[in-house]
Every structure is written in structure tokens, then in C-alpha cells.
User: What shape does this take?
Amino acid sequence: MMSGRKQSGFSEHDPRRVIVALAVVITVGVIGIVRDVMAQKPAGNPDETYRRPEPTAPFTPQIPSASRHKPDKVFLEQADSIVKPPAGYGGEAEMQVVKGNVKFRQMGMWLYCDSAYYFPEQNSMDAFGHVRMEQGDTLFVYADRAYYDGTARFARLRCGATEPEVRMINRKVRLTTDSLDYDLAQDLGWYEYGGRLEDDVNVLTSRYGQYSPSTDNAEFFHDVVLDGTQNDFHLYTDTLYYNTATHIARIETPTRIDSKEDDIVTSSGFYNTQTGVAELTGRSTIFHTDSLGRTTTLEGDSIVYDPDTRISRAYSFRNPAKRPTPMVITDTARKAILIGGFGIYNDRTRESMATEYPLMMEYSRGDTLFLRADTIRTWELKRPRKVELPIVAVTDSVTVAVADTVAVADTVAVADTVAGIPPLELAAADTVVAALPVQASARPADSVALPEEIEVTAEETLHMAEGNAEVSEGDSLVHMAMAYPRARFFRKDVQGIADTITFTEVDSILKLTRLPVIWSDERQVRGDTIIVHLNDSTADYAVVPGKAMLMEYVEEDFYNQLHADWMKMWFTDTGLRRLDAEGSVQTIMIPQESDSTYNRLVEAESSTLTMEMDSAGRLERLKMWPEVTGSVTPIFLVKRSQMFLPKAAWLEALRPKREWYGGSLVWADDLGEITPELEAYFATGAIPSSRPNPTPLKREDSVPGLPADEAAPSEGAAEGEESESAGSEGEADPEALPAEGRSTEEENMTGPEYPAGQENPIGQEEAAIENE
Assistant: This one.
């Protein structure tokens, strides 16, 4: 019972329970107080052990009340950390230090870097480490650091540890430098201390350069070098304008372009670096060098050059405000210069053509050959193979019997002789034994028999028969030139005119066709065709294969004259050395007496004539055979009708003069002007009445009792005879000439013949010359 009461009393009145309850209440209160104190403790307290959870996305700073699409505002789009230094750090402007995967944006431009100083109020930033600027998906700029002004949209990019070079890449264009300034507003970047621009065709380097990605235009200054990676060329200049899309370079300063085959020197123009086409608008020169090292230069006020066709066109200035200078083609291997107002040169075939007052100068020999015409062409003729020809001596096949010879003295009528004046003195023997082929000409050219499969021109045949033994064919190249129409040539020793003149360099032969005339000293030669062979110092020989007419001025109004169907003349340094004539030979001579006077006029006709001169140019030997007829007349009894052969005409007014051809390349002069007389001669083919009026003989020279009209013909008779002579020559109408002698427009356009399968690209350009 007792135990039960004690247990009940502890439950109701035990003080321990009160103490325990009191302790619990106090503990709860203390914990609440501690929690309140902890809640009021600053976040930076070192005793704090709580940390904010890591962000699940990149931190994106927000700019309150600001539109994020302002075109002039630079926005910080991303950074791993942002730190705002205390006030005054970095200057008065507000600055944020951003690090880790930093990304800025302004309009369509994005800038990435490792870290940056961001100045929101100044709208700018300084970016560091692996800087990359992007615009769209085509333009990229790489640098070690960048200083960017968002208001001016201007960036200064520099190289450093993370990027050893500043690079701007726009599609296939790469600009590399150590320091680049980039104006985004003008879309223009430039360097000032050396740089390099590359595209898929070229590499350009310079001290200063600028490039616009939007226009593809680039400009380079000072020590500019352009290297063609595709076409293997090098361009050197001081200023160059280049477009990376078209690959066209614009030149405005002295420039040299070196390539494997051609070099160009110019000061103005356009050069397509991809195709190699050059349009040069300043005084320019192109140097063409072939595989054999032969160089040909083309110079002009403007030049168009196409490397695919290897054809160059050169022009003189068409602008009246500019003084034109001639186009010049210089073949150093052939020692020939061709000038004119317009010219074409084909480097592949080594053909050239000049028009607009052209002039060719060939200086491979002692005396320069000057050649003029309305058009001049040059080309190379390939000979297929080498042919050995035997030495052919022009020998006589049949000897005419002595009985067939004729004494010249017997041919002079006794009635025409004058007492006291001996007959014409010939060789030691008055009779000449002729040894001629029977049914064959004595011309050397006809004595050479060639295989049928070998084609040799007339002048080559003549040269082979004269020179002899070998015709250099095979791999040899023959340099040819043709001048037409209204052609003229000049050398110190011989001059000539013709509608067409062809020059063969290897044979040193000039061939004149249609209305040809040549002069040497006081001699003049005409014919259907004239072939002249030149040597180093003078003309070697000349051949007139048809209608040959030789005149030689003697004194006052008297001329030695010779007409024949065929004629050949040999020359030396002192003049004519020998002359052979065949077929219908007619001659009028004023022989010089031993006392150097002229007392008689000799007229003679025969079939063949041979004449030899001494070193002083005096007649040494004369042979005419097989039959000779003629007369001798005292000089004071000569009538006007006896003074000239029917076809005789002294054409000194048409002769090219020395003053036309100066020793220097001066184009603005009187080089071969076409005179009205020369124009009429080529246009009509008629011989002008250019014989000088004979000086009336003095009365004391006349024979007593001789009528005055016989001693000195009346002016009317003289004029009538001149008209008759001119009219007879005028019958040689150009249309009536043989095809070989014609020079029609179609034949002029055709020009020289070319090997089978080889076209003449120059001929295709003539139709467009006037338009150009």
C-alpha cells in the first residue's frame, strides 16, 4: 500500500519534472535567439559556412530599361565572371572586368575573347586573348588583342602571344599583318607596317595596304609585289589597285611584270592576273623571249596583249590632247625594227604587221634598209628540208659560126657619119663571137634544174645559181617582209618604189612588183618586176625579168638608155660593173671620149647585149650580137626625137630622198611622204611627163647650112613627143598587168602565203583596224 502512494505522489509533486520542463523551455529560447543572430550576420563573415548553389546557365547581365537591339550599342552577351572594381579604378568611367568565354555583340558583329575591360558608359571595350571578330558567316578577324570603339565602330587589332599574326579572312581572301586597323562603318581594314594579302590566284605584299571585304577592292603602296600562284609571274610597282573578285590589277605607276616568256614594262593600265590579258594605256613595252632566247619587243602608247593567242596590238595615242609616238616592234635576233601608228605582233608565229604610216628598218648589214608602205608585214618562212644543189656554171651550149658574126662598123649608115668623128670605139675586136644556147636563155636562173617536189622562188633560184652550191632548207627559218601598197625603200647606194616590195632576209633579196622603179647613183631602172640582191655594203646585182628599161643621166639633157625583155646588172662599191640584156635590145648611148667630152649619140638595136665597166664607171667593153643595127649622130645634130627611147621617162621626182630617213627614231617628220606625183603614179600606172626640156644648142655648135629646126626642135614638137611617150606608157593599165604584178584590195588583204594548215591570225585583224 505504501509503495503505491509514493509512486502516485512523485507523479504529481516531483520537483524533477519541473526542472526538466524548465530546462527545455530555456534551450528552445536560446536556439531561437541564436537563429535570429545568425540571420542578421553579414554575408562576408568569415565564420559563414553556407555557399550559394552554382548557376545552371551562363551568366547574362541585364541592362535595365535599355533596348538590346540598338545599332550603336555594344552589349556584353556572355562571360564566366564579372567584377566591378572600386570607384576610380581604371579612370572615372565605369568599368567591368569580364573573364571566361566572353562574348560581345554590336548589330551583326560578334567579338569573342578570353577577357576584357568593358566600359558600358563609353560603349567600348579592350579585349585580350584569342580575339575573334565575326560578321555573318564569311568575315573573320583574329588577333591577340583588340581595342574597339562601339560609337565610331572602329577596331585596332594587334598580334601577341595567343595570335602571332593579325588575320582577316573573307571567303578565299586572307589578309595577314602584325597590326590592323579596321573601320566597320566603312568596312575597310588597313595596315601601315607591312602586310600580305592572299587569294586563290595571287599573293600581294606591300608596306601599306588596305582592303574592303564588302567591295573586294584592295590598295597597296610602297614596295608592292604581286606574285601569281597560278600563272607564275611577278609584278613589281609602287602603287597598285587590285580586286580580289575579278583578279584585275590597275596600274598607275611605273611597273614591271615578269613571266616565264614575256616581260611587261608599263606605267598605266589594267592587268588580269588570272587570264594574263593586259590592257596597257600608258607608254608600255612587252619583251617576248622564245625558247631559243630570241627577244622581240613591242612598244606603244597603248597595248592590248592576250597570252592565250600570243597576239599583241599596239596603238599610238588617239586622244588629240596627247602627242602620239609610234608603235615600235624590234626583233633583236633579225635586227629589224618596225614602227607605225598601229601594229600587231604574234609571238607564237613571230608574225608582225604595221599600218598608219609604217616604216621598217633592217640593220643586219653595213647599211640600213628603210622600207615604207601603207602596210608592212613580217613573218618567218620554214623550209622543209635541206637540198644540196650542184654548182651550175652558165656555159654556152652552142657556138655560133664565125660567119654569123657582124661587124658593128658595118651597121652604121655612111650617110649618118660626120667627117672627123670616128665611129663608136668598141672592144679590141670589132667582131664578137657569140656562144649562146640554141632554144634556151642565157640567164643563170634558167640553167638550174630542180626536183619537182621542191618549190623555190624566182629570187631564191637566182641566188642559188649566182652563189651556188647549197640551199639552206631543213630547220632553217627565213625571215620575210612585205610592204604594200605604194611601197618605197631606201639605202645609201640604191633606192626604189613599187606597189609591193618583198624582202627575203636570208637571201638578202628585194622583189619589187607592179610599177617598180629603182635608182642607183645617176641610174634608173624600170620593169614589170625587179629583183635586187643586197650584200653588206652595197647592192650586189639586180634582175629585171620583163620590160626592162635602164636610164643613166649623162649631162645636161642627155641620158644613156637601154630597153630589153630581160636584164641583169652587177654592182660593186663604185657602181655598175656589168650588164647583160636579152630580147629586143634597144639602146641610146652618149659615149665619153678620151678627153672626157661628149660628141656623139649612138643608137643601136640587137638581140643580146653585154656591157662591162671599169672601176671608174667608164665603159670598158660592149658586145652586141648576133645582128646589130643602128646609127651614130654628132651631138649637135641630135633631134629631140632621137634623145629618148619610146618608153623612156626620168622619174627623179618619185625617188626616195635621204632626208626622209633620219638616223634616229623620230616619227613626227617627213619619212617617205606620198607626193602628188607618186600618188598619181601608183593610182593610174601612167608615167608622168618628167623629161627635162633640152637646153637649145648654141649657134656656134651647129653645122653651117643646117636648118635651125633640126638643130633645136620646136617646143611644140617636144611637147607632142612627150605626150606620145606618156600615152604609150599609160596603156599599161593596172588591170591589164599580169596577176603577179597586180595589187588589188583582195591580194593586199591576203598578204603572204602560209604553210598548209597554218592560219594567219594577223590577217583577221585588218578589217577591224579602222574601228579600233
